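Help! Submission page says 'invalid entity' but I think these are all valid:
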Amino acid sequence: MFEYAPAPESRSVVDIKPSYGLFIDGAFVDPADGGSFKSINPASEEVLSEVAEGGPQDVDRAVRAARKAYEKVWGPMPGRDRAKYLYRIARIIQERSRELAVLESLDNGKPIKESRDVDLPLAAAHFFYYAGWADKLNHAGFGANPRPLGVAAQVIPWNFPLLMLAWKIAPALAAGNTVVLKPAETTPLTALLFAEICQQAELPAGVVNIVTGAGETGRALVEHDGVDKVAFTGSTDVGRAIARAVAGSRKKLTLELGGKAANIVFDDAPVDQAVEGIVNGIFFNQGHVCCAGSRLLVQESVAEQVLESLKRRMAQLRVGDPLDKNTDIGAINSAAQLARIRELTEAGAAEGAQQWSPSCELPERGFWFAPTIFTGVTQAHRIAREEIFGPVLSVLTFRTPAEAVEKANNTPYGLSAGIWTEKGSRILWTADRLRAGVVWANTFNKFDPTSPFGGYKESGYGREGGRHGLEAYLNV
Amino acid sequence: MSERIAVRKTYKLFIGGKFPRSESGRSYLVQSANVSLASRKDARDAVVAARAAVKGWAGATAYNRGQILYRVAEMLEGRREQFMALGVPADEVDAATDRWVWYAGWSDKLPQVYGGANPVAGPYFNLSAPEPTGVVAVVAPETPALLGLVSVIAPAIVTGNTVVVAASPTAPLAAVTLAEVLATSDLPGGVVNILTGRLSETVPTLAAHMDVNAIDLTGVTDPELAADLEVKAAENLKRVLRPVPVDHDWSADPGLGRMTALLETKTVWHPKGV
């Protein structure tokens, strides 16, 4: 591999406060019970800040603030004015994108080139897109004068902290709802910086409330009686628990959960492009992606050639300092996630699959996992069935298109899938048969605010993005 | 000359395009008729039939599905007197017939109204289209016996889903008679399956069934039962339609909601290039 000189992005652009309160009713406040937790940099285990842990009283206060703002300010406000606030937020995110990108990489561990080139532009674009809907809801296809739901409880994951915040808050506010959002406990910092952006945009108090904390805080939020809508992105197990918790209530629920996507490579696929797509599919964001192409289904006749190319390409991946602009794979987000990845890869080896990683030097401190592939995987193996949520690819083979489809759909998940072939009719034939909400053909991991995203089966229900994404926040 | 002795009808279940009795051999009396009392096993059998029908029905062309739903309206129109004899008012039969016609027309229009091209910021073809979610369990409203039933079945199947319907326990005769209409409308066996009997026996089985993709709780009137069914449905994250108030106006414009709630949106991306 070529030697690269380090090219670290400066962290001086971001000013992290030693501690943060909860953002309720337009101001940062101390939690009622005074609890707090530390957010660390997963690449160094350095403590970045102390963050307030919201308890039931804090959640209640936030929901009340959101209710008041909904009834007095945001609900009655004309759509064109809501739009202007959302446009303002989109612009401020663009203006402060360097700061947000560095903070995201520090708190999450993802490479700066991804936070800079993917997370931040998409987050801003999401606000810009939904801003335009705020005064056009009559034309969104839900009948005349569709009404907002009220107060939305939103719980988001740690893999794309600011982007998931944008996916949740932008459509909710555009539709006229107010929100209480709980960021993931390992990645609260960009949400807290977003709270400052709301202040800078002079968004009316209580329209956006950010309550930091762990699972218990999230539970208190989704179970609160004052909430009309629950939106969750995260694991299927927690999604199930939330679906049970809101059963019998008036709360409208949308869930974006786990995945175990098949990335199907047919024998006529352009191998170099397919290999780039396979690498992007599983190693983008350290594989901390619900729609990651974590099962490679490669046609038997080209399997050897594809694997050889893939290994050669993997040997070029640079693992290390997330703030280095050359880094391809950053840090695993937390010790707990690293333990989960290790447990599943150990099961993969124990069940008889062959493990391979390129030789790469991992930093001593922090949480790291080398890019890994397993060959000789069967459909019964845990690594073919369970979501690993890390840089680990399970390789299976198939002989006929029908077998590829059968194997691709042989999972309780149904979030995404990939198809690689030069033959157009085969793409469409395969896409028709895949039970997945997003199908990438000759590409992978593409996202856009206009494009609906969400799963079939146990990957959840409802869509985020596009006109479809409004439905989750309207009483239709 | 003595008066002719009438030939009575046996009211049975409708599963996989056939009319079996309940495997439990039980029945209950409604309007002087013995109606099959479906068991949990009947519910499971109905799910198997519904699953088997998914591939053909979801794979049929929208034009074909539309014509079959229209055919149902034709058959229903011809049996107007029969439903009236069961106590269904004439205007309700007419409204139910018209509802089939209305939904029939949606089969090849909803994908255009509810999907389409997405203008993504890059050189990609990007298209979203709705697809059926699969097997849907439906609890029909208690009343109106025919219009309520049609109003929950038609929107589920027009898009390619198959259904297992728990009919109104107090008005099952209209449901079984509707099954006879469906059986003569070129609707493939298993697309609609109808269970008569107690909701408390069949519906919890359907709500907990791991091969059911969605559940429509429209006809559940007990809030505690509805909550319990929703909890059961969470096990495999079924799509859930919550109960509607008993005073719901079934003659009103139904809108798209009953169709779209039972659809998945699939978005396909492809790069543009030379």
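Support: the input was valid. A stray whitespace character was the problem, and the output above is from the cleaned input. The longest strand of chain A covers residues 392-398.
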